[in-house]
Amino acid sequence: MNCPNCGLDLNGHERFCPNCGYGLKGEQYRAQVPTQAPAPDNSEILAELKRINMQLEDGNRQRAKLADALGQLISSGALLNFLKR
Q1: Which of 11, 29, 30, 31 is the most buried if burial means most Cβ atoms within 10 Å?
Q2: Under DSSP, is residue 38 helix (H, G, I), strand (E, B) or coil?
Q3: Is residue 20 predicted with pLDDT exceeding 60?
C-alpha cells in the first residue's frame, strides 16, 4: 500500500502516513489490513470433552449412590454385622 497523498510505501498497519501525516482511513486502508487466520475447527475436541464430562458425571452419580448405600448400612448396623463375620 502506498500513501495516497505522498506515495510513501506503507506496510498497511499505519493509521497515518509517517511521512506526511495523511489519515489512512476508509475502504483503501481497511482493504490492506491483514485479517486474522480463521479459527481452527475444534468440533472433534469439543465432542470428546463432552463425552468425558458425561462419563465423569455418571461416575459421580454412581459414587453418590454408593455413599448413600454405605451410609444406610452404617446407620442400620448391618455393616458392623457383616464385618464381624
Answers
A1: 29
A2: coil
A3: yes
Find the farthest-apart pair of alpha carbons in the chain and give their distance in angstroms, rounded: 98
pTM of the model: 0.41
Rg, Å, the chain Cα set: 34
Phi-psi region of 34 (alpha: psi -120 to 50; beta: other; left: phi over 0): beta
Backbone angles phi and psi of 50, in degrees to 5: -65, -40
Tens digit of each residue's pLDDT (9 = 90 or more) over 34-83: 567 777 888 999 999 999 999 999 999 999 999 998 888 888 888 777 77
